[in-house]
Amino acid sequence: MAENFYKDNPDLAFHLRHRDLEEAVDQREDGYKQAEHYPDAPESYDDALDSYEKVLDMLGELCAERIAPRAADVDEEGVHLEHGDVRYAEGTKYNLQDLTDAQLMGAMLPRRFGGLNMPVTVYNMMSELVSRADGSLQNLFGLQDIAQTIYNFGSEDQRKRYLPRFSRGEVDGAMALTEPEAGSDLQAVQLKAHYSEDDDCWYLNGMKRFITNGCAQVLLVLARSEEGTKDGRGLSMFLCEKCPGLTVRRTENKLGIHGSPTCELQFNNVPAELVGKRRRGLSRYVMSLMNGARVAISSQALGLAEAAYREGLKYAREREQFGSAIIRFPAVYQMLVYDKMLIVAGRTLLYEGTRYMDLQESYEWKIAQAESRDDVDPEDRKKAKTYSRIAAELTPLGKAFTTETANRVAYDAIQVHGGTGYMQDFETERYYRDARITNIYEGTTQLQYIAAIGGIMQRTLDPVLTELSHIPFEGKLRRLASAVDMAWDKLRKAVNYVSERDEEDFFELVTPRLCNMETIVYVAYLMLRDARIEPQREPLAERFVLDMLPQVDMEYEIVTRGDMSLIDDHQDILDY
């Protein structure tokens, strides 16, 4: 077992130092004026990077030495429901206490509420480290987005009452969205919220299902506040606390992620507070929450993939067959090389997406401050809108890529181990079970494609791709970049073909293919850019381009062939 999960992963350190967070951090730190009031606030961008690295270093050590050794016992013990109360595994209790003692439970919250004021990018690096140690713990640590949502959309009174408690680890959170008859279709949510003028309070009645950490002390609840409505325009966001009227009816018996309770909840006249404005629960607040949820699951997936890959590599180097370590067999080492390439590519995509989230958040904060003075710069509004659109495309593409990667890498890790990997004596069996949910919850891969396709059709990333394509690559990188240039040209032609054809059935059919093309082209440019910064990354970039660009060619041929029989023949195939 490694002694530090951050220090032994140079890829994470590379992204911390080279993701160009300077503009976002500068605004987050009020031009570093916060250092005048808070002794732990940085005085410059370099000072901020050093601070982030120290936190990641501390967490990396904690994950390696304390959290990871408890993971197998947490998985075996799981959670228990006794008389309506959910009990965590003993190891989970120790883990949460360790994270609280390290003052990491308010990572992104402002310092005035006891938080660390971390950027989204750094927070997700923290989440990746936690996930590598114990994937189920991330489902508790990662729910800091609940506090962030209260900060973003709640009243100042709600912030003052709740956020310091989150930062101190006194309360935990959950988001209660899904219902028995409303899974991914949140517009169908039926849990009722009614307002009582007698005591000036909202009350919640109904059921929620598949709620991660539904036993939490503080819940954000999507509920129908407008009588007679049936769509998303009748939904609002509410804040409530654990009380006698809120009952955990059951906890799910799951394939994996055993340390995290998944609950079915019954709301019986639960008192609640409105968060933000009525009718904006789904259209504004949940959509914002989902961006954070997508990157949280992406970081969870990468942490699990990293753990599974390392177990597979370690076993391949130690296991001998036919007089040789199996790592020397091409069928084995090619599998591991491909997995490593996918992990690095996924990490590149994730942290590029979180960088745009950081920029979006910083400009939205700047605009909010200026609005109070009636002094908003139109250029700031333009930048906030641009970064928001880019993040809205990259977060679903990132979740799709990283979670499918986690499933592939966990599968391969068992394959490297052979029959022993199927046994609970080895960690790989747990990684495989834990990874399986990542491309399902917070929106399946198929739903991520639907979320991303609007930006692809509008060519949201074209200015970014243009900038990347104009990087002055040299030598092998220039030759590889030329191949990516041609792939990008095919991507644009495919998008134009679909747009001009303007047929809904055909559009839905080719959506996953266009998403795959966009992801490969964008990540290929990013990996070439990073290889130019650090030459040791060149083999990874080369492998990605050579292995993945043929997929772009294949998708292009299928899309532009425009064969509707692919739809017409489906029923015949299913009935065969």
Overview of this structure, please?
By secondary structure, this protein is an alpha+beta fold. It folds into four domains: 1-171, Butyryl-Coa Dehydrogenase, subunit A, domain 1, CATH 1.10.540.10; 173-279, Butyryl-CoA Dehydrogenase, subunit A, domain 2, CATH 2.40.110.10; 280-444, Butyryl-CoA Dehydrogenase, subunit A, domain 3; 461-566. The protein has 19 helices and eleven strands. The strands form three sheets. Strands 3, 4, 5, 6, 7, 8 and 9 form a seven-stranded mixed beta sheet that branches. A two-stranded antiparallel ribbon has the order 1-2. β4 (192-196) and β5 (201-212) form a beta hairpin.
CATH homologous superfamily of the largest domain?
Acyl-CoA dehydrogenase/oxidase, N-terminal domain
The CATH class designation of the largest domain is: Mainly Alpha
Mean pLDDT: 94
Strand content: 5-15%
Radius of gyration: 24 Å
Total strands: 11
Secondary-structure blueprint of this entry?
Layout: H1 10-18, H2 22-28, H3 45-77, E1 80-82, E2 85-87, H4 90-101, H5 120-133, H6 135-141, H7 145-153, H8 156-167, E3 173-176, E4 192-196, E5 201-212, E6 218-224, E7 235-241, E8 246-251, E9 262-275, H9 281-318, E10 320-321, E11 324-325, H10 330-372, H11 378-417, H12 428-435, H13 445-457, H14 462-469, H15 475-501, H16 504-533, H17 538-561, H18 565-568, H19 570-575
Parallel strand pairs: 3-6
Antiparallel strand pairs: 1-2, 4-5, 5-9, 6-7, 7-9, 8-9, 10-11
Helix pairs in contact: 2-10, 3-4, 3-5, 5-6, 5-9, 5-10, 7-8, 7-9, 9-10, 9-11, 9-12, 10-11, 10-16, 10-17, 11-12, 11-13, 13-16, 15-16, 15-17, 16-17
